[in-house]
Design a protein that fits this description.
Strand order of the largest sheet of chain B: 4-3-2-1-7
Strand order of the largest sheet of chain A: 1-2
Order of helices and strands of chain A: HHHHEEHHHHHHHHHH
Shape of chain B: extended
Oligomer: heterodimer
Number of strands of chain B: 7
Radius of gyration of chain A: 27 Å
Distance between the termini of chain B: 65 Å
Radius of gyration of chain B: 32 Å
Strand content of chain A: under 5%
Shape of chain A: globular
Number of helices of chain A: 14
């Protein structure tokens, strides 16, 4: 008590407490620091853009590289001495193949699981299923890569002999499992945002639960569902460690999921795990591929965010 | 009459349709249940496959020994320590910036037109940054931190051995062998200093750290007899090897493939995650609290510091810990900046070369020798236990600190 009293009567202390100017100065300083930290995130974006595009420019200004060949050729043969081709389509096709398989796993299962969680599941089931999905979402991607190599590939070979040790199918399935919790949680959020009154209205008209789900709730949440799908595709396209482990390193234009293939991210990992000390065309090709990947994922993310904002049905 | 007949027919039709719809309903319910079980099955198979092949190699020795070409002798100690160092540094760098950005976005909604633009731009930017693949951040880290946009001459090649533009906390020595094969160290001024020439009277350190005065053995001269004399005598043509000893505060520019580079790169990856989760935590604080504080005449920062922040700390902590657990599991960006490296000691400073647990797992999984797959599974168990601890911590914080606010 005594110390408080002394403090209160100490003139300096009183002055400091009452000084509005000091308060304003502090307020201004704090705000500036906050603004600076917010600007920091803009700087990160600028750094990303600068690095990616300047190094890509460096790649295309090398004399053995032609932009036309890069975007139209489907041969990626940087080590083939006389026949060096940097045709990014070979890598893009690998990425598309893996993503396609992944989406064939993640989208239907994710959508149905989310529907179940949102519309059907009793509390007890929910309390098991939600943590399971959270655990699946928290498992590092390199672990899924190990899983693809150690379990999925032998499993596929058991059913069909034609599968290579490294194949697009196995990597795709693992990426699909990785995307499953993402799809589920985003779609479930979208479904839960549909107001109860819509469901009750449909049930009151004599609809079955399936009718309510398929004809009322899902269409009402469609923008959220599509945006979830787009974000999941973007995640699958950018997935790295799984494809580096399980998809192989044979870049070529293919639609056969049994063969070894290579994705854009797979090429970047292959370059990084080798000797990147030489600043040659192979090194810079990493950045050119990263540029294509960056543009692709950025477009998907922005499209997803735009769809969600633009087509959101507000019921309140 | 006709209308009655029609209505009866219609009702019969709808009755049949009703049956079909009931069937559909039951079928869909079963489909849902089966599909939802799949995720449980997947998790069970995943965990079973890892634990069944990994548990046998898991031991105290596995945790505390360095990697080894023989899988039976290999361990994860340097990788584990690398993970700790990187993630600790990453947390120290990321959390303040992330939380401050979240406070700016949630609590300081500006009134001026240009500031609103900035606000909207930052918000949009963060949601887009969250969608950039982590491997791209790894490449950015490679260009921006490892070589610092070519502050090093690009033609030099290996960045770890390349010229340092600036450094502090490093001591360089020229290493000589005496005539009875003892190692002595002659201090030199910098890494780029010319080689020391052996001469009588040079000051040096022996392997125990004692200062000694070197004697030179001339060409053709006979070596001294006593051990003590032999231990300080060096042949005239002995060639030195340059070594460095770095203090714990050793710092250099550019950063090279160091712990600091790794944590900065991971910061790029998880900063958007930290910002978004902190924003959600701050948004969850009821606005009545804020308004009460403002109504009592606080400035906006006083209300944030005394009311909003204390109330949202549990949420911020939980989100940040989950973001850190993502950083622990990230392998791709670290792969981009450091590649697969064979590291046998734990990091000693922020500038040490390092490897992380997830990269060690990748390294072992990608080998052809199946015995490495087993220890890879063991390392995965270590990683999963680490992540489990993180999540457990998050749950405890959520339980202990969260009070009902409204």
């Amino acid at each position: 008590m005594a110390s408080v009293a002394v403090e209160q009567f100490s003139p300096a202390r009183t002055y400091r407490n009452r000084s509005l100017r000091a308060l304003y100065v502090r307020e201004f300083l704090v705000k500036s620091v906050l603004v600076l930290s917010a600007i920091f995130s803009l700087l990160i974006t600028l750094a990303v853009l600068f690095v990616i595009f300047s190094e890509t420019f460096e790649f295309f200004s090398l004399e053995q590289i032609s932009a036309w060949d890069f975007f139209t050729s489907s041969e990626w043969t940087p080590d083939l001495g006389s026949e060096v081709h940097y045709g990014v389509l070979a890598l893009v096709s690998g990425t598309l193949l893996v993503s396609l398989v992944a989406m064939m796993i993640a989208l239907p299962i994710g959508l149905i699981t989310a529907t179940y969680l949102s519309e059907y599941a009793p509390k007890a089931v929910r309390s098991i299923l939600k943590p399971v999905l959270e655990v699946l979402a928290g498992i590092p991607t390199v672990v899924y890569g190990f899983f693809a190599l150690a379990v999925i590939t032998p499993g596929l070979k058991f059913f069909h002999e034609g599968f290579n040790i490294y194949n697009g199918m196995s990597a795709g399935i693992a990426v699909g499992i990785l995307c499953l919790p993402i799809v589920t949680s985003l779609v479930e959020d979208a479904l839960r945002a549909v107001p109860r009154s819509l469901r009750e209205g449909a049930l009151g008209l004599g609809a079955t639960k399936f009718d309510v789900t398929a004809k009322v709730v899902v269409p009402a949440a469609l923008s959220g569902i599509i945006s979830a799908f787009l974000l999941a595709i973007s995640r699958a396209v950018g997935e790295t460690m799984i494809v580096a482990l399980a998809a192989g390193s044979y870049p070529h234009l293919t639609v056969d999921p049994r063969e070894a293939t290579q994705t854009m991210t797979g090429w970047m990992v292959q370059m990084a795990s080798g000797d990147t000390s030489q600043f040659d065309a192979k090194f810079y090709s990493m950045y050119a591929v990263a540029c294509v990947l960056f543009v692709l994922t950025m477009a998907l993310t922005m499209l997803g965010n735009w769809v969600r904002k633009r087509f959101r049905e507000a019921y309140e | 009459m006709k209308s009655l007949e029609a209505s009866v027919q219609a009702s019969m039709k709808s009755h049949q349709g009703g049956k079909r719809r009931k069937w559909f309903d039951t079928g869909f319910r079963i489909l849902c249940q089966v599909t939802a079980t799949m995720s449980v099955v997947i998790l069970a198979v995943l965990l079973y496959s890892i634990f069944s092949s990994g548990l046998t190699h898991l031991s105290f020795r596995f945790l505390t020994s360095p990697p080894h070409p023989d899988p039976d002798k290999a361990g994860v100690w340097p990788a584990l320590m690398g993970t700790f160092w990187t993630c600790a540094a990453c947390a120290v760098l990321t959390l303040p910036i992330g939380v401050m950005t979240a406070i700016f976005l949630e609590e300081f909604k500006p009134k001026q037109r240009w500031a609103q633009r900035l606000h909207g731009l930052v918000q949009l930017n963060i949601s887009n940054l969250a969608g950039v693949p982590s491997v791209v951040y790894g490449l950015v880290g490679l260009a921006a931190f490892v070589s610092m946009f070519g502050m090093l001459d690009r033609k030099i090649g290996d960045t770890t051995k390349a010229r340092r533009v600036f450094e502090i906390g490093a001591h360089y020595y020229d290493q000589f062998l005496t005539i009875n094969d003892q190692v002595i160290f002659v201090p030199v001024a910098s890494g780029a200093a010319p080689e020391t020439k052996i001469d009588n009277g040079i000051r040096a350190l022996d392997s125990n750290g004692n200062t000694i005065t070197v004697r030179m053995l001339q060409r053709g001269a006979s070596p001294p007899d006593s051990d003590a004399d032999q231990a300080i005598t060096v042949k005239w043509n002995e060639t030195p090897g340059r070594i460095s000893r770095n203090a714990w505060y050793y710092f250099r520019l550019p950063f090279g493939r160091s712990v600091l580079t790794g944590s900065l790169t991971l910061m790029l990856v998880i900063l958007p995650v930290v910002i978004i989760s902190s924003q959600e935590a701050i948004r969850a604080v009821p606005s009545s609290l804020r308004e009460a504080a403002l109504g009592m005449g606080t400035t906006s920062w006083q209300s944030v510091w005394n009311v909003t922040l204390p109330a949202s700390i549990p949420g911020i902590m939980t989100g940040s810990i989950l973001a850190m657990s993502r950083a622990v599991g990230e392998a791709a960006p670290i792969m981009m900046i450091s590649g697969i490296v064979y590291i046998t000691s734990s990091p000693s400073s922020l500038m040490s070369d390092f490897t992380v647990l997830s990269l060690q797992i990748y390294d072992w999984s990608s080998r052809h020798d199946a015995r490495f797959h087993a220890i890879s599974a063991s390392a995965i168990i270590v990683l999963l236990i680490l992540l489990l601890c993180f999540n457990f911590l998050a749950i405890i914080i959520r339980q202990v600190f969260s009070k009902p606010l409204s």
